[in-house]
Fold this protein.
Amino acid sequence: MKKQKTFILMLLLSAAVVSCQKQFLDTKPSKSLLVPETLADFRALLDNLSVFNRSPGLTEVADGDFYTTDAGWKTWTNNQERTSYLWQADIFGVEKGFDWNAAYQQVFYANVVLDGLTQNKIPASADRDAVEGTALFSRGWAFYHLLQMFGPAYQPQAAATALGIPIRLDPDVTKLVPRSSLSAGYGQVLADLGRARRLLPSTTSAKSRPGTVTALAMLARIHLAMGNYAQAGAYADSALQLNGKLLDYNNLSTTAARPFPQSLPNGNDEVVYHDAMASYSFNAATSVFYCDSVLYRSYNSNDLRKVLLFKDNGLGKINFKGSYTGSSLLFAGLANDELYLIRAECNARNGQAAAALADLNNLLVKRWKKGTFVPYTGTDAQSILMLILAERRKEMVGRNMRWYDLKRLNLNQSTAVTLIRTLNGAAYTLEPGSPRYTYPITPDELLANPLVQNDR
């Protein structure tokens, strides 16, 4: 009984902390069953798509791939969308930070599962391993996104002293946890993903559940963010050896409103892990959110991405339609195209020009109209790297990865980007390395936990 009361108190506290609007477990019909105790309970927690398989979305409005008009900007319902668009110092004002709260809700659920598996002495089995591995992956996934949004770009020489995020490893939300170092934060993500890789099954019943390839893909992504190119390339290669499928865009309808097959449960062969970007008014009402004209013009007329990812609104502006979820939700998960690009980038950075071009060409031949793509050739690794980075932007547009990429690319002058936009007659600029690439800790969190605020 004491254990049940403790769990119920924790659940109520969690609801208050993360502003959760629903009961702890939507599928449970009785309050007496709210306490998770069995393996089935823990699996049900992790299968809750209103909690998991959702990622931050606010930085998508700031990354320069899309823009709006003066009138469109005024229609956005949250002030944090408008301030993010203009890269202002104060992002949240008095508003709650949805992305922060949603990610820590995932962390809390994962910790409840990990703690519960031990406390309830769930016996060893393949199913138990899968549940534990899913919880570890989900916690690592949430920490990764929090570090990308609320921590500075990873630099090995500064990571031990740079501030990261609070690393919560148990479900007691009454504990005040300070911000860890950036190094400790990334270390925890790697530890969680490493353990998850050993526990997760090779196949799953739906792409909303992580498997072995999912963990490998995420390890590739996190090592890329850290600049560990040998490791990133190796993990991408391991994942692609197990599943290297790519969609042939020649087989898709260019006139369809949603050209791509739905990723759930298993409809898109290229998708490794289904995840949808958090909905904001800017990405829910895409009619006033337009592709950057320079980016759009960079697609060749024979490049099918130009008509499968975008649509002309008939008024001279281009809207995005090409989500890999196959729905109105924007894809923010893991897919094989990203893995080919990671392996290609890492090979280019390590001087392996032929291998880098092989991956890039294998991807692009599936993107262009049949018979029109001429494979790239060359031996200069730096030129090939710049080509790969340009194609990465074009391939992964609309997935909220551009902001994360800009943070790491801005560490090197040769790949740094200055963002410029105009609104209401005023020009706004975001310089490479600006502290405004690191979002401020949300005000509601500071009220509950006196953390050190980021310098903006």
User: Anything to note?
Assistant: The two ends are 48 Å apart (CA to CA). Residues 2-250+333-448 form a domain with the Serine Threonine Protein Phosphatase 5, Tetratricopeptide repeat fold (CATH 1.25.40.390).
